[in-house]
C-alpha cells in the first residue's frame, strides 16, 4: 500500500492551500450522507419520480430528499422535469451530463472504500 501522493510539481504552501480549498469546495457540494447516493441512483435509473427515488435511497425522509434535490439542482447535478400537461402534474428528476463528470470520482472513492474495508478486516493499521 502506497502512502504518498505523487504530485507533478513540487508542493508549495500556495499549491497546498489551493488544493485544500478545492477539496473543501467539492466536499461542500457532494458531501454528506445522501448526495452521492441520490446522484448514483439517478444515474442508474434515469428519469425517476420523487416517491420512487425515496424508495431507492432507503432510509431518507421526504423532507431531507426534497432539500438534497434542491441543492443538487442548484449545483447542476440534477434536473427537475415537470409534466404539467398531465393530471395530476408529474415531476421527474434526472441526472445531468455534469453529474456524469463525477463518475471517475465515484469509482475512485468506491475502490478506496473497498481497500479500506479490506485493510480494517485484516487489521493492517498500527495500534
Automatic annotation (TrEMBL):
Record-linked SUPFAM superfamilies: Winged helix' DNA-binding domain
One Pfam family it belongs to: HxlR
Organism domain of life: Bacteria
InterPro entries: HTH_HxlR, WH-like_DNA-bd_sf, WH_DNA-bd_sf
Residue intervals of the HTH hxlR-type domain: 16-121
Keywords of the record: DNA-binding, Transcription, Transcription regulation
Name this protein carries in UniProt: Helix-turn-helix transcriptional regulator
Lineage: Bacteria, Pseudomonadati, Bacteroidota, Flavobacteriia, Flavobacteriales
Amino acid at each position: 500500500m502506497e502512502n504518498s501522493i505523487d504530485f507533478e510539481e513540487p508542493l508549495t504552501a500556495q499549491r497546498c492551500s489551493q488544493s485544500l480549498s478545492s477539496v473543501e469546495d467539492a466536499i461542500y457540494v457532494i458531501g454528506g450522507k445522501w448526495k452521492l447516493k441520490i446522484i448514483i441512483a439517478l444515474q442508474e435509473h434515469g428519469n425517476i419520480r420523487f416517491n420512487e427515488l425515496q424508495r431507492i435511497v432507503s432510509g431518507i425522509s421526504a423532507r431531507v430528499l426534497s432539500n438534497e434535490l434542491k441543492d443538487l439542482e442548484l449545483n447542476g447535478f440534477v434536473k427537475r422535469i415537470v409534466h404539467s400537461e398531465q393530471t395530476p402534474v408529474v415531476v421527474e428528476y434526472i441526472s445531468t451530463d455534469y453529474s456524469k463528470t463525477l463518475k471517475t470520482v465515484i469509482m475512485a472513492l468506491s475502490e478506496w472504500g473497498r481497500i479500506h474495508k479490506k485493510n480494517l478486516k485484516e487489521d493492517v493499521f498500527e495500534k
